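U., I forgot to send this yesterday:
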Amino acid sequence: MTKTADSKVLKNRTIANVYLGLMIVLMYVPIVLVIIYSFNESKISSVWAGFSLKWYEELFRDRSMLDAAINSLILATVSSFLAAIIGTLAAVGMPKAKLITKGLIEYISTLPIMIPEIILGMVFLAFFTLLRLPFGMVTLTIAHTSFCIPYIYMLVKARLVGIPKSYAEAARGLGATEWNVFFDITLPLIMPAIVSGMLLSFAMSLDDVVISVFVTGVTTNTLPLKIYTQLKTGVTPKTNALCTLMFVITLVVLLLSSWVSRKSPITTGRRETHEKPSENRLSVDPVG
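Result:
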């Protein structure tokens, strides 16, 4: 029986490792190839002619590409900042609201994550057309802010669950107002979640294509849309260089977001609380 069970465990582990390896190959090999061929000397992406940095030099000399990159950075920064304000206020205020439809409102708040982007883009297109808003940076900002809000909302809501209610109650007992409780206690404790959500929203906004296609204007161009239009005329190593830079920026933002979320004062405080009793026990020297 033991040999049979061990053989089944070994077989399942082998299948899991094969599956994991296959997924890694399918997901990361294309990214690695794009990075490698961004240093290709040849104009043909599929032919390796030697190592070169000239495509990065041409990329930084392309004025239209730089303008599109600046637009994307401004759009991602403004959208993530606005989403942080709205999402934080919603996460903090929703538990205090005495509404029968509170659960329904919370569910609707997360819909932009679950709805396919093409459907969401068509909805924004119809909505902005109905309002007769000129398509451009304003419509892009509204659309990007809308699908970034749920990321902030869910992260801040999860952080609020871990904050003991006794903190706010003690502050109120000492005469603090609701504004003092929020700015002096709640906000510093949820700040890692807000920053983490902003960084995640920044990355999501920076590489969005589908929704931006529906809500952008004729004179407004973002970096992902610029890459998409260039793909129709053929991929050059300059496009590979741009994709490599975007991949690095997105990876840095996501890693920074993960690092910030781990530097939570709640987690640090709990770790110190668990460590102090053991240190005290070790410091006691029994007599006799």
